[in-house]
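One thing: mind reviewing this one?
=====
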Amino acid sequence: MKLPVYLYGHPVLREVSENITPDYPGLAQLLADMFETMYASEGVGLAAPQIGRNDRIVVIDASPVAENFPECEGWKKALINPEIEVLDGETISRSEGCLSLPGLSEDVKRVEHIRLRYLDENFTPCEEEISGFLARIVQHECDHLEGKLYIDHISPIRKQLIRSKLSNIINAKIRCDYPVKYAPKRKK
């Protein structure tokens, strides 16, 4: 089932997510719904806060960008309670977008090499080192679990320059090709 993607300004996107346990109800269906939502929105990753859940769950299918970034070939995974360790302090700036910030993209500096620890959908512990654009995707999605968005990594000047676009998202003055949930109206 396609779920609405929560957009910039919604409070759930700024909350730190909670670890989940093997008795999490309906996990298999939730993961299937998250993948379906991600594909319908033409994304390569989706974190639980983006569908209104304060849980440490991420789904990624990086295959659509594998032509330009070979490390992404066949990388389709559900990440439960993921943790990232930086292995290389060198940062590379690349353009990023986000389903929760439709119509925007900004250059973001991120490290190129990380160690990822997570549980798979069967709660089997996994660990792997990843690099390049795949590391960027994982860092972007895991940021969501910490209540961070990619625009938190841009300069104050850049943020000022996109302020009106951010305001349009908050005030539901944008259109999306996928189901969305806007931020609740503020009381005046």
In short: The longest helix spans residues 27-40. The chain has one domain: 5-181.
